[in-house]
Amino acid sequence: MKQRIETQQRKAYVIRLTTAQLIVALAGMLAAYPVAGIAGVLSVIMGALVALLPQVFFIQRLGILHNRRRSSSAVSLFRAESGKFGLTVALFSAVFVLVPPSNPAFFFSAYVAVVLMHGLTPLFMRRHRTLD
C-alpha cells in the first residue's frame, strides 16, 4: 500500500513538473512573438524541446510513470542520468548545426526557464500530513 502511494506521489510530481514546464514554454512563446515574431517563437520552442526531451527520456528510462516494479539501483539511475546528459549534448549540437536558432537569447532563456522549473515545482506540490 505504501509503495502505491509513493508511486502516485511520484506521478503527481512528474505531471505537475511537466505541466509547469509547458506553461513556462508557452509564456515564453507569447513573450517572444511581439518582439521577434515567428522566428522568436521557434527559438523558444527549440530551447524548450532541448530541455524537455532529455527529461522525458529520463522519466521513461526509470519507469516513473509505469506501474511496473522500478529498479532502484544506483546503476540504473546513473545510466538514465548519463543518457539524459548525452541526449542534451546531442540536441544542443543538432540545433546549432542543423537549425541554428534565429534568436539565441530566446533559445537559451527558454532552455534555462524550463530547466529551472525543477527547483520551483516543489512549491506547487501540496503537502499532506499523515498521522503515524
Rg, alpha carbons: 17 Å
| Main sheet properties | none
- What form results from the Cα inertia axes? flat
Q: Which regions contain 5 or more consecutive residues with pLDDT less than 50?
A: none
The total beta strand count reads 0
The helix/strand class is mainly alpha
- Helix count? 3
Strand content range: under 5%
Mean pLDDT: 83
Distance between the termini: 15 Å
Approximate helicity band? over 70%
Order of helices and strands: HHH
Describe it for me?
There is one protein chain. This protein has helices at residues 2-62, 74-98, 104-124. With 132 residues, the chain is an all-alpha fold. Helix 1 crosses helix 2 and helix 1 runs antiparallel to helix 3 (104-124). The model has no long low-confidence stretch (mean pLDDT 83).
Short description:
The protein has 132 residues and is mostly helical.
Key structural traits:
132 residues; single chain; mainly alpha; flat
Question: Secondary-structure blueprint of this entry?
Answer:
Blueprint: H1 2-62, H2 74-98, H3 104-124
Helix pairs in contact: 1-2, 1-3
